[in-house]
Amino acid sequence: MSERLPKHLDDALYAARLALKFLAGHTLDDYRSDELLRSAVERQVEIVGEACRRALDDTASLRERVPDAAKAIAMRNRLAHGYDTVDHGIVFNAVLLNFPPLALALERELTEWERSHPARPPGES
């Protein structure tokens, strides 16, 4: 486990929360018709997926504790490599259904990491 793990967890958590915030109050029809909204949400999905990939690469045991991370990675790969065949309904529903439990698991892991790695006073190594 590297010292980069909390950064990856925090990046994924922040982006998941942003994607959910961007979709709050919007319908699937809103999402389909708003290019700016779709672009914003898709970017956050890509960040969540990449940050989760890095976190799992760093700490393989996270795969069991954060099972939705694998889904986020798959969605990121689909957006990045299959951009021309993206189903907007799948992205919309995946964020609304999978990101809340993912965010909770990421928050739990980040809290646990911080609890097990107390901050050192400046100047101590």
Would you summarize the structure shown here?
With 125 residues, the protein is an all-alpha fold. It has helices at 5-23, 28-33, 35-58, 62-65, 68-81, 88-116. Helices cover 77% and strands 0% of the residues.
- Bulk shape: elongated
What fraction, in percent, of the residue positions are helical? over 70%
Radius of gyration: 16 Å
Would you count the extended β strands for me? Answer: 0
Cα separation of the termini: 18 Å
Provide the number of structural domains: 1
Mean pLDDT: 92
Low-confidence stretches: none
Q: How much beta, percentage-wise?
A: under 5%
Number of H/I helices: 6
Protein structure class? mainly alpha
**Would you list the SSEs in sequence order as H and E?**
HHHHHH
Largest sheet: none
How would you describe this structure to a colleague?
By secondary structure, the protein is mainly α. It has one domain (5-114). The chain has six helices and no strands. The protein has helices spanning 5-23, 28-33, 35-58, 62-65, 68-81, 88-116. The longest helix has 29 residues, at 88-116.
Which key features would you list for this structure?
single chain, 125 residues, mainly alpha
Explain the layout of strands and helices.
Blueprint: H1 5-23, H2 28-33, H3 35-58, H4 62-65, H5 68-81, H6 88-116
